[in-house]
Input
Amino acid sequence: MAPGNVEESALQQEHYDRIGTDYESHYGDAASMAYRDRFIHEPLLGSLPLAGRDVLDAMCGSGQTTGWLLSRGARVTGLDVSPGRTESYARKWPRCAVHTASVLAMPFARESFDAVVIIGGLHHLHPHVDRGVAEILRVLKPGGFFCFMEPHAGSVPDRVRRLWYRVDPLFGEGEQAVDLAALEARW
Output
């Protein structure tokens, strides 16, 4: 269920509008946020110069990464395919702009952001990951940072994810781990 065309985007929107509240409560609680800060946000983003920089929290959901970015002085814009999630984002982060669109067709000018951050979202683009990366690079300023966290194909976290997805109703069909070797070969 990757948003590669209008029909696929509509399915992705419908999926996240349907599961959004459960997803948010499951991944936005205090323990999950403490885990994200310690094991994802700080290691992935902690050394970046974010103060005063324009950062796109792409595939943002209701903004589980936005608070951390704001605490580092970034100017954050959210982007998500789900209208329900962007409405939640707007209520939670009223000083941030948010857009409802696919990362495959972002409504931003070339070279708009100093950094683009995606936490656990690239696998939703399968089989259009290449198109997503091309669009991310389009909106990224020269010398900018594309930061993502994603279990890659064949890794231990990917094996755990595949087992988890069998029993967790919050995940859709067609989601696959990102093949980092293939991505690196193309970019």
